[in-house]
Amino acid sequence: MTTMADVARSAGVSVATVSHVLNDTRPVLPHTRQAVMDAVEQLGYTPNGPARSLVTARTRSIGLAVSAISNPYFTEILQGVEACALEHGYSLLIADPHDDPAHEHTVVRLLHERRVDGMIVAPSAEPGALLAYLARHRVPAVFLDRLVDAPETGDWRFDQVCADGCEPTAGLVTHLAELGHRRIGLVAGRPGLSTTRERLTGYRHGLAAAGLPFDERLVVHGDSEAAGGERATDALLSLAVPPTGLVTANNAMTIGALRALRARGLSVPGDLALCCFDDFAWADLFTPRLTAVAQPSRELGALAVRLLLERLDSPDRPERTVRLDCSLAHRTSCGCPEQPEPPGPPRPAGADAPPSATS
Questions:
Q1: 3-state secondary structure of 5
Q2: Distance from the Cα of residue 157 to its chain's centroid
Q3: What is the mean pLDDT of residues 138-156?
């Protein structure tokens, strides 16, 4: 088995220098660091993780607690988290809190007991126990996708990262209004989540911008799940005067809405124009293709890792809340005609001519 002493002999440095390079415990000249890393690579040396963590007081691991990991949105976030963590030499421990406050507290405690250096958490709608635990144990943490209010007591700082939910939702509503819709429904997410509040606020802003009144009967919560989205859409379609346009506030509820429409034999956009929050890989494979707000999922995950690493390096720096912009994938479920493909680069002269018989 290759030892640290073998690496030191190969690199022409002391064992202490190899230790400083591998554990980041003291600055080392760039050429010396490179010589050590080259020797590690050539000899196939694997550091002793437990021993290394005793030296550095770090395990170089991050705990990730997000619900609905099977949701394509969170799957892409996970990919961003994993890629960025790996790039910085960190491993990932993953848990699913199932959007249940009690289970959330349990999985965060278990991750903490595994001695992760910090955590990235998409908090539940009732994060009180989570906040209390993290603050009490002074666990470095970044809240992802869903924002929380800082604890009333204590000075522990939490960073947060999310996408803007208000303006994009308002844009979906105003777009439907511009197409002539006057009764626009909203399938909202789980009550208590910041994402639900923001998208509901955006919905109301969009109505106001279009000069349309807010009608609480046109808002039904689908609890951020496909089954809930199906129930909510069915309730909206059962109104004496149902909506002619619909905004669904996440991709799971969009699937539920489409199921409810199919069960009634209704078509999109012929019977109901549909716009949704959260784009996903196969949204443009539906007929019609789904007009959707696309969140920068992987960027959110990577940014959460970077914020956490900055917090580990500078525990006392001011907390930060970072919002990233979304984009609109404008397709045909809203009732707009198919958009023509953008023109490609000009073809060189003679590109369409048959090949010459001689060369």
A1: helix
A2: 21
A3: 82
Report the alpha-carbon distance of residue 2 to residue 330 in Å, rounded: 57
The per-residue DSSP string of 72-90 comes to HHHHHHHHHHHHHHHHTT-
Residue 286 burial (CB count, 10 A): 16
Residues 6+ apart with CB under 8 A from 249: 169, 186, 187, 188, 189, 195, 196, 199, 200, 222, 224, 276, 277
Burial of 274 (0-12, 13-18, 19+ CB in 10 A): buried
Answer whether 142's CB lies under 8 Å from 274's CB.
no
Q: Which two tokens stand for residue 48?
A: 């002793």
Between CA 323 and CA 334 the distance in angstroms is 27
Residue-level length of the chain = 359
DSSP annotation of 124: -
Give the span between the Cα atoms of 226 and 222, in whole angstroms: 8
Q: For residue range 271-315, list pLDDT tens digits in order.
A: 999 999 999 877 877 789 999 999 999 999 999 999 999 999 999
Q: Pick left, alpha or beta for residue 123 (phi over 0 → left; psi -120 to 50 → alpha; otherwise beta).
A: beta
State the Cα–Cα distance between residues 220 and 184, nearest whole angstrom. 12
Counting Cα atoms < 13 Å in the Cβ hemisphere of 109 gives 11
- Specify the long-range contacts of residues 10-14, CB closer than 8 Å, at least 24 apart: 10/39, 10/42, 10/43, 11/35, 11/36, 11/38, 11/39
- Identify the pLDDT of residue 57: 56
Give the whole-angstrom CA distance, residue 355 versus residue 353: 6
Within the chain, what is the greatest distance between any pair of CA atoms?
A: 84
Structure tokens at 117: 């250096």
Do β-strands 141-144 and 91-95 pair in parallel, antiparallel, or remain unpaired?
Answer: unpaired
